[in-house]
UniProtKB/TrEMBL annotation:
Positions of the ABC transporter domain: 8-253
Classification via PROSITE patterns: ABC_TRANSPORTER_1, ABC_TRANSPORTER_2
GO MF, one annotated term: ATP binding
Domain of life: Bacteria
PANTHER family per record: D,D-DIPEPTIDE TRANSPORT ATP-BINDING PROTEIN DDPF-RELATED, TRANSPORT ATP-BINDING PROTEIN
GO biological process, one term: transmembrane transport
Keyword annotations from UniProtKB, A to Z: ATP-binding, Nucleotide-binding, Transport
Identification of the protein by name: ABC transporter ATP-binding protein
Family stated for the protein in its record: Belongs to the ABC transporter superfamily.
């Protein structure tokens, strides 16, 4: 495996937060790798440390100890200059659970995309307009929807906008933080299918943070299971979900009804590309 194949290399990541006179260890000793072409899932119950781990990968949180490299860049070093921030933006972007909170309510879809492209110096005005049309077509937004503000869009449409905005700078990786958790199950399937289509078209890799092991099973190749700040199990997603070695992973898996819903055909005719764990993607 060459260095160019490694998207994330984390070694001994630790994060401690001060709480009054005490401390809270949010992440302890996290070591893992993500390679090109293999989507990574990070799963665990609320408070397990998965979001803190993701923020350290993004460079949004400085670890108390350990290192994390993304595409060869040390994310423990603050990106102070404008050029450094723009360079990092091309490495990784994030799509949040609630896209409404991350979108400017005063901006139309086209305006939000135009701003991102202008900041990153994408071509001239005509080039940017062509890129906006390309991005909207890629995520399935109509011309009418492009002219609307976030409040006039549905939850699924807002998530499409968030994905288009993340893709605007052509990042090597997109981190999806519970990106379908707030959506109805049928809309979840549409967004998961969209993400697979986008990946096929762009080659962008995904890190998916989720409590829903069914969703993780459909979109990822490898998975990390976290409990109380520690990685308790990791490996190929199909292996971990079908043959977990840790009791905690088995409990986490068995507590998610989504597997049964999908097996019973709730998504039949909708999730055309979402497949059970262990099947070929």
């Amino acid at each position: 495996m060459s260095g160019n194949d490694i998207v994330i290399a984390a070694e001994g990541l630790r994060k401690v937060f001060k709480r009054g006179r005490g401390e809270h260890v949010a992440v302890e000793g996290a070591t893992f790798r993500m390679t090109r072409g293999r989507n990574l899932g990070i799963v665990g119950e609320s408070g397990s440390g998965k979001s803190t781990l993701a923020r350290m990968v993004m460079g949004l949180e400085r670890p108390s100890a350990g290192t994390v490299m993304v595409c060869g860049e040390d994310m423990t070093v603050r990106a102070v200059s404008r050029s450094a921030r723009k360079r990092r933006a091309k490495l990784t972007q994030m799509v949040y659970q609630d896209p409404f909170g991350s979108l400017d309510p005063r901006q139309t879809v086209e305006s939000a995309l135009r701003e991102v492209l202008a900041i990153h110096g994408t071509g001239d005005r005509r080039d940017r307009e062509l890129r906006i049309a390309e991005l909207c077509d890629l995520v399935g937004l109509t011309q009418q929807q492009r002219e609307r503000n976030p409040k006039d869009l549905s939850g699924g449409q807002r998530q499409r906008v968030a994905i288009a905005r993340a893709l605007a700078v052509e990042p090597r990786m997109i981190l999806l933080d519970e990106a379908v958790a707030a959506l109805d199950i049928s809309i979840q399937a549409q967004i998961l299918n969209l993400l697979l289509d986008v990946q096929e078209a762009t080659g962008t890799d995904y890190v998916l943070i989720s409590h829903d092991l069914a969703v993780v099973g459909h979109l990822t190749d490898d998975v990390i299971v976290m409990r109380e700040g520690r990685i308790v199990e990791q490996g190929r997603t199909a292996d971990v979900l079908e043959r977990p070695t840790e009791a905690y992973t088995r409990v986490l898996r068995d507590s998610v009804p989504s597997f049964e819903w999908r097996e019973e055909g709730v998504l039949e005719g909708i999730a055309r590309r979402v497949v059970p764990p262990g099947s070929a993607r």
